[in-house]
Design goal:
With 145 residues, the chain is α+β, with helices and mostly antiparallel strands. It has a single domain, classed as Jelly Rolls (Sandwich). Helix content is 30%, strand content 36%. The structure holds zinc ion.
Length: 145
């Protein structure tokens, strides 16, 4: 059984922002020496998600619009009252970011076969910033033989 755990630091610029991290995960898969197993890609945050989809700019704009429709930034959130109350800790009102994250999720699992990450022709792995630009941590964990 082989095992590799790596943490990437990623500086995001704005929210929403789709950041294609597929190549970093492929590199980690190569470094791990795992021939057959899987990679788990995990966001350490409640307002930055991990999802697989197509990296096509018009589609990314569509998906940003969909997120804004589902949980608009301008809507009222109870969490924002708490965030204001504790504004000393630096959290901005971000109820919409948490609600969007709930629908996306924090991780994806991707198969590794014959030493290569298996993704479909149009599949890319994204870190999705849902809050404002900041430092983010993504853990990739590889397990297998
Ligand atoms: Zn928050």
């Amino acid at each position: 059984m082989k095992f590799l755990s790596q943490t990437f630091n990623i500086r995001t610029e704005k929210g929403p922002q789709f950041i294609d991290i597929t190549e970093r995960i492929e590199e980690a898969a190569r470094e791990s020496g795992v021939s057959n197993g899987f990679a788990v890609v995990f966001s350490m945050h409640t307002t930055a998600a991990i999802r697989i989809n197509e990296n096509e700019p018009a589609l990314l704009a569509d998906m940003e619009r969909m997120l804004e429709k589902i949980a608009p930034c301008s809507a009222e959130y109870k969490h924002n009252e708490v965030a204001h109350a504790f504004s000393d800790n630096g959290e901005r009102p971000n109820g919409h970011s948490h609600c969007q994250h709930l629908l996306l999720g924090a991780s994806e699992a991707v198969p590794v076969v014959d030493g290569k990450l298996i993704v479909g022709q149009w599949q890319r792995i994204f870190l999705i910033e849902l809050d404002h630009g900041r430092d983010r941590e993504v853990v990739v964990q590889l397990m297998g033989e």
